[in-house]
């Protein structure tokens, strides 16, 4: 399989790709055509079907897999694919995993790291809760490993939620050494659970969009609820331990205007909000650098930083 | 019993009052004294005990009831009570109800009005949920009737939560007639449940202060959780009905910066947030007018309105 | 007459429509064409004239009425009309009322409701003032009935100002029962007059755009002035009654940053600002729901609510 | 007469001063006393009457003139006057002008400067309007010369409104030379009229407090109204000239959040808002420097500048 | 040479112009073309090359000078140039000065005015510093005269920095007369130096874009540094004089959120920030008026003024 | 020596303490007294001298060391010392180090850790620069070790600047491992230099207040300048390395409104701003916890967190 990112201007294109979107248009001289976006794990490409009545063009829809032929041209410094042939592919002809953006790190390795951190938690209630989620709840584990951490901003890929959660948890582990007054068990438990609501806030790939529940309640409240229900099944889980853990989850966006219904009232909640924010911003900047990897100069105004940025030399 | 608001400069004071606070001081010439605030349902008065070693002055603490004697003087345009005798009263000598600020409206009448509104709800799930709280859950009913709607701002008195809830529900009932596109059942159910988390966010009178749970989770998330748990016991309560109801509760502060983790996404959530805000502001202005009832001029800058106000002529 | 909203992809179009706008373009291959927007009371449609030198295409301008022939196509999920013939229509061939968006409620019925509310005002000065505007001033009455309440946001149609004013006045009437400390006469008079400046702030339909006076002074100051001048003709109108009424008008946007030069200093001014804001937001949400009437899912980010919304199920 | 600012620690004080305020107190050991603030044009001094029943102490009230005797002490680095004798003075014993803060510049000289600037206006309508106010309206002239420009911040003294108006007008005159695209007649007329509403927004000295009209309408709207009424009496005053002038007055605070109901839409309105803001800030800084004239270091955080300041060396 | 602003619809175009930008495109029917922007001192024009393989079209790049032939058409109310022939011009065929926007005022006259103001400074250290920059440092003088004051907003043309600096300095000179408590030497020296960092923050014309140093440090810090280094070479320059001057430069944007690392702590720093802001806003409004010189109505919403504007009548 | 924090109500006090402040007062019954604050490394205590003419009370001033005798009382839940005897102590009687708040960590150990981190930097220019400051510049080293990181908020004690700098540098070291795209040499160099301007922004202990230079320029610009001057002495220090380092220092407050004249444009600048902010907030919360160490409940509203906080259980 040839990945989309490997095509160049002038290439002949052929292969099976996933249809991310499809809309109709009419050219300035009145002729109808179609805009298609194809996707694979390496990225996306804009396509045109100029002759929509060509018998070589099958009907197909968004999220279908199509076997296409065509040629690559360059338009406004971006590549474009003119589709000449399109055939809907059958299940079995392709592996869906090839068509979704995915973490550059190995998912199972990351998961093992996370489980080792669970083992390091001393408080038996917190440890039992973490195992109830990350070891014993198979449906949870399956979804957690595949979820992204966002629809489009940072960590928006398969395994993104795991990668972000692990990175935040490790940073909290560092904090617990640098600032010995932090309660490590509460902090690490909260770090591992802080975004678990996202597995239901966003639908699975390839759709990866907000669910109805996600839009109405949000992952912050959903995560707090999930912890509450799971803790009710852990014997001897004290109300105080639960409230402090739920508070850390509710407050992890740090400020009301960022969607937390409470500001951090415990130093662990404050620490978690810093780890979450730091990791999100580092990953966002990393993705900006990757998207501008060939640009030796300034990349232009970046909304999230309120300024212009460039790669360090 | 003589109410505190009925004393005038020069009066002899005597009777049993509740101790709201008590702190020690030392006068400028080095003599220790005590600052006491006494409370009954009509309000509070600042008191001094200049001779703290007088054998006629018993030991007493915050939240005790004391039988005092003394005289009323005027200090900086406010009354002050110099306590000459103080005796801790026994249970039975006083009725605690006389010592707490209380709604000026009859609590049982208001509760009957609320129950009549519950009867008018058509959706059987919502109706069953409301009855499960407001009719069948005796502990809930008892707490709900006695709660205040706030620690200090608007509706900060026994029955305040009921008064506010009824007023918001009736305004939503008006909205449902004026704007027929509103779903009345969802709107009225949400109105009646919007602040139920406050019965655990604040401790009971006479303390009426934030609980640990209230500080860590807040009444918005607590109310959403209470509805979720109660709905799980109502047969046939659909997930969609629950999510929409919980959303209205979560969004009822209208904006993230006011503590709602989600902004209103449904028109009923928006309507509820307006009814809640309107009633809170009307009551606040009413309390300002009452506190300045003898002032024919301007009352001075009011923080909540960002300006100076006066009574209408 | 066939309304624009009743056309479908593939239809032949013909009939007289109003020209809302007209601009020239040149296609990518260098050929000039024209963009036209046609309007009737049901809405608007984007049109193209690809052959501008065709003898069947008359010259016409913005705000003209033209009799057109052409066909409907679909472009990017929106309908487009390719105009093949265009003839300027003569007065008498069409009824301008068919070409302007108009309230869905009967204007005369609404006006009768408003006049009944005027009769319910007790204060003779306020009642005389209201009659001087809404009964005796024929030019005012004619303009008031036809005005919109806005250029484009809520109530932007013929009769919109009346519909909004009536709705706000009725909500204030509800408030005056729910909150007996409100002075009903002042509140209702202010409600009926709060937006009267809009009849000169915006030009009449079909233009419905800001006038020079509207841009320079704004409807808030203009309305306050109109009341001042009219009150000068009402015998015995006290200065205090006038100042309080003008204050309510000046403060009805509630905050300085929304264009009120004073924040509400009287409880009636505060109540009016809530009624105005509530009605505007309910109507805006209603219009969003109507514009997305076929959309079963989420409508996308709404600037005025700072979030995503959907219809309630 | 000895001015208050000329007293030192240890002096005997005697003379007639105006009573700015008077309140009662009770000392920590239970003895009543009185707090009095005396004022003359040089400033104010805090006073105490420790023996309120002394037969040498007459009854007197706020805004009375009293002939006092006592001694000056130093308390927390500020002077304090212990009053031993107090006699209410009769009209004729004192000249009220000696008891009000007053501009350091000669009022008649400033007024002559202003009238010369009126003569330089070319547009006959604007010139006639200015004369109708500043030359022909005797009551206006009398009030204008005596008004302050503020209750307490900058220019809060007799003649302050004139001093500020003249300074703003001269700066606008400078602008009209530096930026020839400015219409000098409009700009200077607007500059001279921009704050005329203040003569009714604030009551006359020595009270100098917001009037009912000032609180309800504000000087911005009041000034615009005054100009509208006066212009109606000037023959041939065009509507366009009036609207542009009123706009400049309404917009002179520059931003909605500073109380202007419209932002500057004309370049003269923008220029006026800069002249007004510049002069206000220069005078405020000047008053801070004068109030700290003996302080060689930093004066501490200044709210209006969001920082710490000091005198330039 | 015919200036771009003198072409009309239908004209034949020919002459040498500078290439401001050049990008490739593909038309809707699949044909590649090129977008070119040509510039001369009168402005810019959008151009198309429809036949990119025409042998009459030479290769050329951004910032080249090309001798073109083509015709002018009108597209969406703007002129467009269809290029039929293009030849790269040789140095000597054109004068670069003809291709850059330039101040409408004579640069040498303005510079003489500035030097006269330097002569009026009394403090020998400040005078020496100013001469070290504006008289003795030839490289500085050359750059300073040619720099713009901005990339795109106000004063974005050759000589713009000089024009702005002179205007600010003269306004400060006016202030020093109107407010005698200002230290004129400090104020004028700071005014002349306040934006000198811009000569390195922006690259020279025709590029006029942010340099690496400009993006990383900014002209405020760069100007403060330049003054520090130059002052070190002036004998007897006191530390106090330097700190006060550097403070004025650092604080000249007036507020932290506008990029000043310190708010004005000296009255001269405050005055400078007002002069800078006033001149920038006057020039910006002037440029808006010039860009809309044929528009008798309202120009539409202006971001920098948060409102709609028009020319004064 | 008995530390101030070890006194209890009723104790006799005696010993040598430093005078932090001293002001005069007059009691309500007219008697002058003195307010004194004494300080040692354990904290401060409020004191009164009721009999200021007692021959046993020597004259003394702010920053003197005095040998006092008196007794401890309790006033409004805080301890107060009534001074009966006061004698100015001679140098030699006391060790100033006992009277200044000081880091709880060993200063030399921390400094060794910092020097080890310098050794780990690979880039020879950065390493040379760091050594030029932290090893070779003896005056710098002496000041750096003793400076606080703030006047009053976090790390406001001797060694506080070193403690904060080391903590930020170690967190950056952690980041450089967790995010391998970070340039470790630039990041660690910037971390070690980010607050060096503070050694001149604040005067030395015991005064520890803003200097004139600190108020006028601020530690951000001062630190950038110090680096610029020192780098000029390091052979081969490239302009690019210098600009990137200075940028990190200038941008380390993260946002313009926090006093950085530039927002982070390099990912290392962003990382540094997060490390700085995280460490400051962790230390601030730690100090709040220490100041409330005996409080089992909620500590009350904390301005820096916009909410109420408590210790974790």
Q: List segments of chain A where confidence is low: pLDDT < 50 over at least 5 consecutive residues.
A: none
Number of strands of chain A: 7
- Strand order within the widest beta sheet of chain A: 1-2-3-5-4
Distance between the termini of chain A: 35 Å
Helix content of chain A: 25-40%
Rg from Cα of chain A: 23 Å
The number of helical segments of chain A is: 10
Largest interface: pair, residues per side:
A-F, 39 and 39 residues
What is the SS-derived class of chain A?
alpha+beta
* Mean pLDDT rating of chain A: 91
Shape of chain A: elongated
Polypeptide structure, described:
The structure is a homohexamer. By secondary structure, chain A is an alpha+beta fold. Helices cover about 40% and strands about 20% of the residues of chain A. The first copy, chain A, contains 10 helices and 7 strands. In chain A, the strands form 2 sheets. Chain A has a 5-stranded mixed beta barrel with strand order 1-2-3-5-4. The first copy, chain A, has a two-stranded antiparallel ribbon with strand order 6-7. In chain A, β2 (about 30-40) and β3 (about 45-50) form a beta hairpin. In chain A, α5 packs across α9, α5 crosses α10 and α8 (about 220-230) packs antiparallel against α9. The model of chain A has no long low-confidence stretch (mean pLDDT about 90). The interface of A and E includes residues 28, 31, 74, 298 and 308 of A.
Write the layout of secondary structure elements.
The structure is a homohexamer of 313-residue chains.
Chain A: E1 12-26, E2 32-40, E3 43-49, E4 65-75, E5 78-88, H1 107-119, H2 124-134, H3 138-146, H4 160-178, H5 184-193, H6 198-201, H7 212-216, H8 218-231, H9 239-250, H10 267-291, E6 298-302, E7 307-310
Parallel strand pairs in A: 3-5
Antiparallel strand pairs in A: 1-2, 1-4, 2-3, 4-5, 6-7
